[in-house]
## 1
Amino acid sequence: MLFLIVGISMLTKLKSIPDYGDHMTMEEWLECVECGGFIDYDGSGNYATATQMSDKEVVPSDVKKGSIDKSFTHVVWFNK
């Protein structure tokens, strides 16, 4: 199922947020990355909205590269 949300690519698939994983705001996730709480070795996340998760992956090293997609407001983080 594809959804169009202003600022989010029409090719991004959104689905329900699973019971596992930590759903947090982008600000909370960035704070965890910047303080060293999350590193690539720890796991990965998927961009999300307040109510749905995308199929687009995000990892902590994306912050250092400056390649964070700011059109999303949340991240669902999955520890390894």
## 2
Amino acid sequence: MVLVECNNLPQLAQTAETIKRVTFVNIASDPEMPGKNIRSLFQIDRLDVNSEQEVFETLSKWEEAKMKLLERVRFPLLSPDFIDTPVMTNLALSTLRVHKLLVN
């Protein structure tokens, strides 16, 4: 998309947006997709999905992949101040599952 924006190629930009809209579930289900790209996919207004349930399920799969990565963090090695502030104030990180990681 950067190439498209830098070279003012509106037709290519429109084609790229259409491809993202039509292949949303496949693209967004990839746990290797960078967060910035995932956010831009979820901001597309007219996704080509059967229902909003597909959007929710796709996001849930991506979030599950992120949670699995969080299991790699050695929480007992973090300072209590760090856990109290950045970790617990982050809604996604303050889930019951992360709480279990912190206590174990």
